[in-house]
Amino acid sequence: MGASVKLELLPTRSDSAAANMATDFLLLRRYPETGRANARFRAYGWHRPAFTFGYSQKIAWVRGQLPADAEGVDLVRRPTGGGLVDHRDDWTYALVIPRGHELEKARAVESYRAVHAALAAALVAGGQAAVLVERCEPAADAEEAAGGDGHGELAGCAAAKGPTVCFTRPELYDVVDPATGAKIAGAAQKRSKEGLLFQGSIWRPAAVGVRDWEVFAETFVAGLATALGAEAEAASWPEFAEGEHEALTEQYAAQEWTEAR
What we know:
Helix content: 25-40%
CATH topology: BirA Bifunctional Protein, domain 2
Radius of gyration: 17 Å
Distance between the termini: 39 Å
Low-confidence stretches: 139-160
Number of domains: 1
CATH superfamily: Bira Bifunctional Protein, Domain 2
């Protein structure tokens, strides 16, 4: 893709956990228009304390990992993979890379590395020491657990080791504090015929060095634009089909969806 590619920056919004998941999914499935090949990015907040978990996770395992103080929080199954993520004090974003882009065509581990390299550089520029995890040790039964290649919907060792609680154990190309090893940022991916969806999260208590989150966001977006070979520009909120977002929000909020596995 050439220099005409845009990285469209959507307005920052807060919503319920189910509505946030619906928006991210529709940005992948419905937002690309005929003849458009732009990437799109949004940062967002949460109306209520929430946890999300990967599409393929077993609900019994998820409930067993919830902390004691999580009673009454929203719990929603994501469209992407990955483990359990606590959104009560995080900085959350979604990135859609269109079909055919070099990062969309790359292996999951490579696209994961590229996005997190931009994120780590922005953290460092903002005052927080941060590096990528360059090596992790798979479990002994990694190949069997991962179905053979160790990647699936996740990057690096996450798929191989099985389900995880995000921010408790760093995986390959996660972002960590080099002094303490504490995990700062992780993400999950979903690939479809329309492109590639990233859902990422930064745990703020592990990034206390960040001086200004707005400046961090600007630096991160600039780094993403460079990685994508794109020009970042503000974009208006997309218009989905009438009732489509509401219907999908209801699906994500439904007990049947949450307990589907």
